[in-house]
Amino acid sequence: MFERVPCYIHKDKNTKINLSNNICYDQIHALKVSELIRENGNGFSQYANEPKIYEDLSEFYGVPKTNIAIGMGLGELIPRIFSIFRDKTFSIVTPTWMMATGFCEVNCIKYYQGLDLRADVLYVANPNGQDGQVIDRDILESLCDAFEYVIIDEAYADFCVPACSALDLAITRNNVLVCKTFSKSLALPGLRFGYCFGNHHVIWRLQQLRPSGVVNTIVERIGPELLSMIDEHVIRMVDTRDYIESKYECSPSNANFVLLKNKESFLDRFQYRTINGLHRMSLMDLDTFKSYESLSDVHQSRERQPS
């Protein structure tokens, strides 16, 4: 049975930069966002004017407002999506975000792990948040034909080069939902802002289940500015990914992390995860990474010197 660690249990303190949670560390971006929040005052004191946020998303993505739903991060929005299909059987393409199967278990939704054509509804992360791999567009479209409904989690899609988003399928087909989040695209999980695109009939069903308020006024006030920052943040992170993958032995990633095959010395300066023998480290801006890389090189050379 799925079980999360109780939230009241303290974690061990660690002063290293946390690159273990698939959240990028971008100093340039952090300074800009902090300044925007300071300029816009106390933005967490009340619920936002949601119609404005829908207008911002509609204009930015070129999608009608009736095809958009927002939530308090994908952690709130995806369970709402799952709940409208709770009488269906799910195929959860694994390995993936552990909460996908977790939501099924706690809500007694029948599911198969892995791609299983016996299911009614397919959930797939593209790119995958575990291995950074992307599903070929032709295969993705064939999957949309094979299942009654397809939920595509695109939390990492902005980092995919060339672009791999299936947003157009969510608008042109009746059975596709595409989900996105500021947590990955902007490295801002604390804003708790996720959103999805799909057929207006399914979006309407999602809206009937939404909480009374799903977003704070910071997103309302600076939403357009935040959306416009996605590209510049992603470019910086992809520059770092390209640099690391060209210099070190890696398994290629299309997401916001690198998968190092060897335990490089700079990893000692960060919190990171090891999965299936690969060292997964979220990205950071290149100047910051190079400074830590240099420190590690200096430390290594001192260790090699004879006493």
Layout of helices and strands, plus pairs?
Elements: E1 17-18, H1 27-39, H2 50-61, E2 68-71, H3 74-84, E3 90-92, H4 98-106, E4 111-113, E5 121-125, H5 137-146, E6 149-153, H6 167-172, E7 176-181, H7 182-185, E8 194-197, H8 200-208, H9 217-247, E9 250-251, E10 257-260, E11 270-271, E12 273-275, E13 278-282, H10 286-304
Parallel strand pairs: 1-11, 3-4, 3-5, 5-6, 6-7
Antiparallel strand pairs: 2-8, 7-8, 9-10, 10-13, 12-13
Helix pairs in contact: 1-9, 2-9, 3-4
Number of domains as seen in the coordinates: 2
Task: Provide the residue-averaged pLDDT.
Answer: 91
Q: Judging from the principal axes of the Cα atoms, what is the shape?
A: globular
What is the CATH architecture annotation of the largest domain?
3-Layer(aba) Sandwich
The separation of the N and C termini measures 55 Å
Number of helices: 10
Task: Look up the CATH topology of the largest domain.
Answer: Aspartate Aminotransferase, domain 2
Descriptive overview:
The protein starts with 16 loop residues before the first strand and ends with a helix. 37% of the residues are buried. The mean pLDDT is 91. The strands form 3 sheets. A 7-stranded mixed sheet has the order 2-8-7-6-5-3-4, with helices on both faces. It has a 4-stranded antiparallel sheet with strand order 9-10-13-12, with helices on one face. A two-stranded parallel sheet has the order 1-11. It is built from 10 helices and 13 strands. The protein is an alpha/beta fold and 307 residues long. Helix 1 runs antiparallel to helix 9, helix 2 (50-61) packs parallel to helix 9 (217-247) and helix 3 (74-84) packs across helix 4. Strand 12 and strand 13 (278-282) form a beta hairpin. Helices cover 40% and strands 16% of the residues. It has 2 domains: 17-27 and 230-297, Aspartate Aminotransferase, domain 1, CATH 3.90.1150; 40-225, 3-Layer(aba) Sandwich (Aspartate Aminotransferase, domain 2), CATH 3.40.640.10. The protein has helices spanning 27-39, 50-61, 74-84, 98-106, 137-146, 167-172, 182-185, 200-208, 217-247, 286-304; strands at 17-18, 68-71, 90-92, 111-113, 121-125, 149-153, 176-181, 194-197, 250-251, 257-260, 270-271, 273-275, 278-282. It is globular.
